[in-house]
Amino acid sequence: MLFRHFFTRTHKIILSLAIFFVAVALLIQLDNPDTLNAKPDRNLAAVSQPTSLQSLQSPQSPQSPQSPQSPQSPQSPQSPPASEPETQSYLIKKGDTLSDIFESKGIPASVLHQVLEADVEYLSLETLQPGKRVTFKYDRHRALEALVLRIDAARTITFAIQDDGAFVARKEESETHWYSAITRGAIKGSFYASAVKSGLSDAEVAEVANLLKSKIDFRRDLRSGDTFTVITGREMTHDSPTGRQRIEAVSLLRGLKAYNAFLFDDGNYYNETGESVLLAFLRWPTEKRFRISSSFSSDRLNPITGRRSPHNGVDFATPVGTPIVSTGDGVVSRVGNHRFAGRYIDINHSGTFETRYLHLSKVLVKQGQRIKRGQKIALTGNSGRSTGPHLHFEFHVNGQPVDPLTADIPTAAKVPDVKLASFKAQVSKQLASMQSQISLDVILATGSPQPTRTTKENEGLHDIN
Ligand SMILES: [Zn+2]
């Protein structure tokens, strides 16, 4: 009895204490909105970065003075209670598609549709490269406010929502410069094997061969002991490489005869006397000329969406099935199919130039294929979003779209007379550094990210094809 009585009293005290502590705990929690607003991370693999990337905030932020209470968003008729704007960053993995990523984050397909629509003039979301980052910015109602794609260390594209719920793309670029390095080698076996052994990448070897192939037969003309010197450029922003590379100069010594190519500031390659070593560009991507249905514009009223946006190319009114030719020598860098751009082809020309052909009915080339100027690459069509059969043609110089019909692009076979003096000054500087054993940064004063690479022993059986 005594034992039972004692136990009951102790129990009552403990119970009272427990009730008291629970009540206190509840009160503390009610006082702390952060605790109530904490919600599980909806994103499977993303890292939450609530305060970073403030500088990338879209101009139409929910705190904008015109609409302090009603952020214009098509996704938020049934919005959850307001919370702090949030930023999440997502590292792209192999095999990811944009629609998978949007789905995993619970963003409606209609928003994906709007973002893709804004990307039609860039096609930047078409090839998601593993290791790159996309950042999602949400407003206080958890509606997507902006999507930021980091293209490389120097470039981002921001897709930001507008008052009408549409997204607009804006490209941002930090300052870049080129660092140069010299690679030397001697032929032993094939040129390909010798050049790779000297430290050039496969793409660089192919580019060197492409630059000199009209002068030299790489299979038959080279002898063991012939030498080559290549200046390669690497694009940098601050101290980080952006991943862009280019060949700046090539000198191949066959016996006593030198074969040279120099990249000039117009993006074209010339020999030491200023004659073009590559075929120049055609202005028109078709053999016949067609009416221009919409010209290049940095601010065009879109006939379908009714919004103002850049028109990064020229539209030609071509009947479906019209043959399209590549306007220059190059390599097919991408073949794709986009909801709005339709079937399309990108061709890379020596790293500096790119051409793009949209709304195709049939593609006649494959990614990675080397293309000659004037070669038939596709048939025109009406695929994607289009007001009627036409070809949309773009020309990019160092990543910037220009008007292909009027821009100062290399269509001539020579360095223009007015620029010859500065071209020759550049050539003598580059030749001096290539012939010298002194490190390049002493002579060019541009700095060199890598020590000069010199290889004497080259072996192998591969060949350029
Ligand atoms: Zn167009």
Quote the CATH topology of the largest domain. Nuclear Transport Factor 2, Chain: A
| Rg measurement, Å | 30 Å
Mean pLDDT, nearest integer?
80
Distance between the termini: 102 Å
Which stretches are low in confidence, meaning pLDDT under 50 for 5 or more residues running?
26-77, 438-465
* Large-scale geometry: globular
In terms of DSSP E residues, the strand content is 25-35%
Name of the level-1 CATH class of the largest domain: Alpha Beta
Ligand list:
zinc ion
Overall strand count: 24
Q: In CATH terms, what is the architecture of the largest domain?
A: Roll
Largest sheet: 10 strands, antiparallel
Portion of residues in helices? 10-25%
Oligomer class: single chain
Provide the domain count: 3
Q: Count the DSSP helices.
A: 8
Structural class: alpha+beta
